Amino acid sequence: MARGSRLARVAALGLLGVPALAGCTPNNEFWRWGWPDGVTDEAYEMRTLWIWSVIAALIVGFAVWGLIGWSVVRHRKRGDELPKQTAYNLPLEIVYTIIPFLIIAGLFFFTVVVQNRVQERSAEPDVTIAVNAFKWNWQFVYPETTGDDGEPVNTVGTSDEVPILVVPTDQDIRFELASADVIHSFWVPEFLFKLDIIPGNENGRDNVFEVTVREEGAFVGRCAELCGTYHAYMNFEVRAVSAADYDAYLAARQSGLGNFDALESIGQPGAATSTTPFDLIDDAQRADG
């Protein structure tokens, strides 16, 4: 058997093995190429863009590697005679100018489509939540509610308690972000999305986004913008619950219960489970020591 034929068969077996390996990984993890799964509709859109971008890059890569290999074999030295020299090849130059342009244009087009989809705002979202960032904590306000003090229900973190943002699943949620001082950044890794909060643009278009959460659970949130000395301490938790539990939670808060007791009343842990508060005093003492 010719050497080239054996190599072709080995390569074919390798390619056949890829789908088999992919089938052994949970939740199609292989085809996500390291991209997180995400828990929102918007995360699905971004994950799909990432997967097809990697596939396109691999196709281009294999084509380039194949051409390099073909050139090495086809133009290998066969003797001392100087091969034919070509100053330029106009048709070839046109081709390798047009093809990269088409690739870039295609990637740009699909990126813009996904970006517009992720940043799309509905006329009437199911839920609106105001997020106020400040050095170095978070406040979550439910503007469509009224607490026992006559003000909208809100949650603020402390040095001993991580603030918990409660949201319903399977509903369109609008976040209206505001900063009281410097630029912060609202980031929930499972959303596969973050948004910088620019001061002076409260509730403006640039500080608003919407998501639809599809999975219940507790997801850590962070500030992703270096905002000062205690930037790393700005953790929070997103607690995604069913729509019925969300309504029951807000009813409990409006009746006067605190965040901890209201979460306990719907069968949820009252304290954050995905992250813990930092001990500021202990950290300061260790820094001084």
Explain the overall architecture:
The protein has 289 residues and is α+β, with helices and mostly antiparallel strands. The protein has helices at residues 3-23, 41-74, 90-118, 243-254, 259-265, 280-288, and strands at 127-134, 137-142, 153-156, 164-168, 172-179, 184-188, 193-197, 208-212, 217-223, 236-241. The N and C termini lie far apart (73 Å).
Query: For the terminal residues, how far apart are their CA atoms?
Result: 73 Å
Counting structural domains, the number is: 2
| SSE pattern | HHHEEEEEEEEEEHHH
Beta fraction of the residues?
15-25%
Average pLDDT confidence is 83
Instruction: Give the proportion of residues in helices.
Output: 25-40%
CATH-defined superfamily of the largest domain: Cupredoxins -  blue copper proteins
CATH class label of the largest domain: Mainly Beta
Structural class, from helix and strand content? alpha+beta
Gross geometry: elongated
* Largest beta-sheet details: 5 strands, mixed
At CATH level 3, the topology of the largest domain is Immunoglobulin-like
Low-confidence stretches: 10-26
What count of helical segments does DSSP give? 6
CATH architecture of the largest domain: Sandwich
Provide the spatial order of strands within the biggest beta sheet.
3-2-1-5-8
